[in-house]
Amino acid sequence: MQNRQYILTVFLLFLTPALRYIYQHIAAILSHYDGSLPLTHFLKNYYKQYPKLGSRDRKILSEMAYCWYRAERGLNPALSFEDRIHAALFLCASNQKVINPLLPDALKLNDGLSYAQKQEVLNLHFASGNAFSLQSLWGFDTKLSDGIDMQQWLQTMLSQPDMFIRIRRNKEKLSGILLSHSISYKEITADCIALPNGSKIDELLPEADYVVQDASSQQTGSFFHPLPKQHWWDCCSGAGGKSLLLTDKQPAIKLTVSDTRESILHNLIQRFKRYGLPLPATVKADIANEKDVQLQLGTATFDDIICDVPCTGSGTWARTPEQLYFFREDTLRQITGVQKSIAANAVSRLKAGGTIIYITCSVFREENEDVVTHILQQSSNIELISMQLINGAAVHADSMFVAVLKKKG
Questions:
Q1: CATH topology of domain 162-213
Q2: How many helices (H) and strands (E) does the chain have?
């Protein structure tokens, strides 16, 4: 550790004052960040401590930090700190205007290069000929779900997914506004469009006309078949993306939502008000705790249940690469235990003939197929209708898993 610090100190001496300033800060960020906070929150707190960091400096440091956590585990440890930063930026950075001045000519960012071409450029630029190994990003035995392979999944970690919105109404009007402000977009489905990540649309588009929601998350709605007057339960509602999608499909349902956090439920209700939708009943409860479920729900049962369980979020790690970097397998074991408890308590509240839609934003078999197998083994009156991984790689989106199970009548 002391030798690394000495090498870094010597390296800093040979930089221009402006670059030295940037590298001193990125070295401090990387040495102090431990993954306990989301990286975006850590960086905001860090920048508050150094108000002299201008907007451009913050953009550079943020790109450096995110690219480092995307690529560092795959970089050749024999490379210098500067070379590893350069390689990470070349592989992962998207802001050419900000980042290209930091890179040697051979590694200037070029949108036209594929991953394979970038790896070839790196190997030619660095004398080692082995600058980056994609497989080295993942050093665990955890298996992935059917529908995605390890090479494909790891490659998605190197770039930020797009931003997606679900159009609720006035599609032509929204399209016109985006075009008039030179914001490019791609139509994924009739109601889903992709925008460049970070697009500033909140002050442009009428807030009641759209919902920011990942394309794969939107696709889970195809498994919801609500009928008027049915009683649905979103048992781990979070911010309410699935509940909003469900209610947009059929406003005449009776909906109950639950979460462990009062603040999240408050925010969910505010979102329903924003979109002019009927307000759901809210229940603050820990659905993994059978006694708490009994206390908060009494004898209530439901026609259908959305069971979007807490998970590793591995299907969304391209947005939060620090979670891959700091991942520990023992965390997975703890999470699957919670998922099984939540699923069991949800199944016990399902009416005969009803369906439970089990959802994760994970690509890990242990959280997906293995939990479904556990549900089937523990509940003889539950049958599997379908299950699949929604692989978002093709449209630069997250990946999710959905299983539909039915309670026999």
A1: Alpha-Beta Plaits (3.30.70)
A2: 16, 11
Mind listing the pLDDT tens digit for each residue in 99-119?
998 999 999 988 788 899 999
Does the pTM surpass 0.85? The reply is yes
What SS3 state is found at 8? helix
State the amino acid at position 285 in one-letter form: A
Q: What is the model's pLDDT at position 4?
A: 47
CA distance 354 to 305: 8
Spatial distance between the Cα atoms of 163 and 194, rounded to a whole number of angstroms: 6
Low-confidence ranges of the chain (pLDDT < 70): 1-18, 128
Written as six digits, the tokens of 336 are 């699957």
Please report, as a single letter, which amino acid is at residue 386.
S
- Contact 118/99 with Cβ under 8 angstroms? no
Distance CA 247, CA 267 (A): 16
Report the half-sphere exposure of 30 (CA within 13 A, side-chain side).
23
Q: What residues form DSSP beta bridges with 132?
A: 75
Cβ proximity of 123 and 84 under 8 Å: no
Axis crossing angle, helix 81-92 with helix 17-32, rounded to the nearest 10:
80
Identify which of 98, 219, 75, 69 has the alpha carbon closest to the alpha carbon of residue 157: 69
User: Are residues 155 and 71 in contact, defined by beta-carbon separation less than 8 angstroms?
Assistant: no
Degrees, nearest 5: CA angle 100-102-104: 80
Model pLDDT, residue 305? 98
**Among 273, 350, 253, 351, which residue's Cα sits nearest to residue 307?**
350
Q: Would you say domain 216-407 falls under CATH 1.20.1640.10? A: no
Q: DSSP string spanning 220-239?
A: GGGG----TT-EEEETT-TT
- What pLDDT does 111 receive? 79
- For residue 18, what are the contacts with CB-CB under 8 A and spacing of at least 6? none
Contact 361, 398 (CB under 8 A): yes
Domain ranges of the chain: 2-137, 162-213, 216-407
pLDDT tens track for 145-167: 999 999 999 999 999 999 999 99
d(CA 388, CA 223) in angstroms, rounded, equals 11
Give the DSSP H/E element, type plus range, for residue 402.
strand 400-407
Which residues touch 47 (CB under 8 Å, ≥6 apart)?
Answer: 53, 58
- Note whether 161 and 186 are within 8 A (CB): no
